[in-house]
Amino acid sequence: MTDIQQLATTLDDAVRDVRAIAPLTDAGPLDVADAYRVQRAVVARRKARGERIIGVKMGFTSRAKMVQMGVDDVIWGLLTDTMLVESRLDLGGLIQPRIEPEIAFLIGSPVRSVADADAAVAGVAVGYEVLDSRYRDFAFTLPDVIADNASAAAFGVGSWHDPHDLGGIANIGLVMEIEGRLTQTGSSAAILGDPMRSLRAAARLAEQAGIPLEPGWVVLAGAATAAVPLPRNAHVRVTAAGLGSVEVTTA
Ligand code: OOG
Ligand code: MG
């Protein structure tokens, strides 16, 4: 039998010690259901330390990410308040940070199933996600990355826009610059053809998991491009057409 608590402790300790570990599946099989149990146990440990869940992140909603990471299923992870970045991020506590552009939704009313998803959108913003796999060199199988809370480490969002003012977000250009150099470009259409589909997928996972999306929560729809290594002492800007920019400076 899989020892959920022990696997969660292994992952939580890797974060604390800032040290990469071998994939959990090296030691034995792990199915997706147990992997989500481990993920929830990891987040429960964070909650016991006073952290609060403030949203969810979708993973592998674009082909660019599926190809980069070698997996082919949409997953999610949970975001806590300590992951939200204002404008500066110290990378000292991270193992091997990467950054990727994201589209973010602000939830305005409870989402218990897919029927609630579209009407619950209170805002849309450009965002970024900082990933930090606890597995050496980001090498993992699907259950490994699910257990590791979908590599979640930190994220930031720009200012919220009313989706009705935008004329749609199904195909908007995304640009990521590091130190003023163009690093990644893409379109929101890379996210399941339309980021709204990712929000609906989040609603489906919410129903399955019995974890409704709450008003005030953020949903990261998933990266439209591959992630890139995030250096120290760097300035990163992610811009989306019609949504403005979000910036972060690393230390
Ligand atoms: C897993 C997280 C994937 C996304 O936006 O697709 C993800 C990883 O790439 O390590 O956040
Ligand atoms: Mg992401």
Give an overview in words.
- This protein is α+β, with helices and mostly antiparallel strands and about 250 residues long.
- The protein has one domain (about 5-250): Fumarylacetoacetase-like, C-terminal domain (Fumarylacetoacetate hydrolase, domain 2), CATH 3.90.850.
- The protein is built from five helices and twelve strands.
- Strands 1, 2, 4, 5, 6, 9 and 10 form a seven-stranded mixed beta sheet that branches. A five-stranded mixed beta sheet has the order 3-12-11-7-8, with no helix packed on it.
- A hairpin with a 2-residue loop joins strand 7 (about 175-180) and strand 8 (about 180-185).
- Helix 1 crosses helix 2.
- The termini are far apart.
- The relative contact order is 0.22.
- The structure holds 2-oxoadipic acid (OOG) and magnesium ion.
- Magnesium ion binds near residues 57, 100, 102, 129 and 220.
- Magnesium ion (MG) binds near residues 57, 59, 129, 222 and 223.
Which percent range fits the helix content?
10-25%
Helix and strand element order = HHEHEEEEHEEEHEEEE
Number of strands: 12
The name of the CATH superfamily reads Fumarylacetoacetase-like, C-terminal domain
Taking Cα atoms only, what radius of gyration do you get, to the nearest Å? Answer: 17 Å
User: What hetero molecules are in the model?
Assistant: 2-oxoadipic acid, magnesium ion
Domain module count: 1
Shape: globular
Structural class: alpha+beta
CATH topology annotation: Fumarylacetoacetate hydrolase, domain 2
Contiguous uncertain segments of 5+ residues: none
What percent of residues are in strands? 25-35%
CATH class: Alpha Beta
- Main sheet: strands, sense, barrel: 7 strands, mixed
Contiguous helical run count: 5
The rounded distance between the terminal residues' Cα atoms is: 42 Å
CATH architectural designation = Alpha-Beta Complex
